[in-house]
């Protein structure tokens, strides 16, 4: 008996519900061409369908099952969207794709601005660390002897710092007697730089190498210039979006591991109705007509002919 084996089912379709539906179709005889359905699944999906006759066209049978069960599903696409975030609108595919690209550009802009903010904060801290590396003795004196080291770090004139103090009596604070800075604002460290130095562990001082700090600063400055150029040039933005899409296709496309599409997107074709004649099994039959007017039909060819010949001879002699 010819069998049809189903090894894949549509996404989000429960196999148990599908088997129940197919069994209901068999019991109710909604599809006479289908004789039986069995679930032989183990780790993978294996649903066996048995046609009622060998003459049943498998393509025609599957077409009818697609219409009457969830072996094939249609996913509706709701194109009523909020293009501007406020007004609902039914859009075509071109408008939706354009909105997607505009969204990608908006994401690129927000991501670039966020990265610029982080770069600016890091550059500010690096500036303070470079000052601390170049004036390490004075920084240690301020932290050791000053009553308000944070304010003192901000008030110090790092272009002409004071000499190293041999004792607390030799220490000269950059703050006045009232605890205020004696230099114009903008010359000393910023609050973020002073906080970074005060929160730094002593064991990190040996890692404050000027070349590494300068190299990191130069790299961030170059990245900052690139981001500013990107935000100012629409052409560069679309090139960056195209590069991101190519990278996504490389990671999740058909050639990527596990990226091959499991289901196909196709236009549903016409399904022909199954006629009663298509369920009649086609096989060789031998029809025997005797001299006495007896008619007999037998399956097969060669063996049936021999048997029919003997039967016709016996009846003719009687």
From TrEMBL:
It comes from the Bacteria. SMART domains: TOP4c (SM00434). The keyword Isomerase applies. The keyword Cytoplasm does not apply. It catalyses: ATP-dependent breakage, passage and rejoining of double-stranded DNA. Keywords: Cell membrane, DNA-binding, Isomerase, Membrane, Topoisomerase. GO terms for molecular function: ATP binding; DNA binding; DNA topoisomerase type II (double strand cut, ATP-hydrolyzing) activity. GO terms for biological process: DNA topological change. Residues 1-279 form the Topo IIA-type catalytic domain. This is Topoisomerase IV subunit A.
